[in-house]
Amino acid sequence: MRQDSSAQTSRAPGRPDLGQRRSCLVRAGLPPSCSHRVTNTEGQGVALRASPGGDRLPGKGYDDGDVLTVLEQQGEWTHIRGADGRDGWVLTVTLGS
Question: Is residue 18 part of a domain?
Fold first, then answer.
């Protein structure tokens, strides 16, 4: 009989497993280096800001589904970095697992 492989989690050393990544948003503070997808934007994506609630940075933000790395969080704002190396602040509510 074949064992259900969905119950097992394979992950790279040093990377949180799926359960840990989901809990990143549940806790009040998002841990650094936790990755999340842009979501909850009704297809609009997110604009990067220079500081929490600050001016928009020039250029394109990130689209729904893009994966971003959390650098830090302050209140309702999260400092992120994309795979392309750009960083800025976005509303935490726009980040999902």
Answer: no
Residue in the structure block whose two tokens are 């949180």: 16
**3-state secondary structure at position 85:** coil
Q: Which of 40, 57, 48, 52 is nearest to 77 (CA)?
A: 52
Q: Residues 22-43: pLDDT tens digits?
A: 345 444 455 566 889 999 999 9
The pTM score is 0.68
Nearest to 33 by CA among 52, 18, 12, 14: 14
Asked whether residue 1 is domain-assigned, the answer is no
Q: Under 8 Å CB-to-CB from 64, ≥6 apart: which residues?
A: 37, 38, 39, 41, 43, 44, 45
* Number of structural domains the chain divides into: 1
For residue 93, pLDDT over 50 is answered with: yes
Looking at residue 97, its pLDDT comes to 76
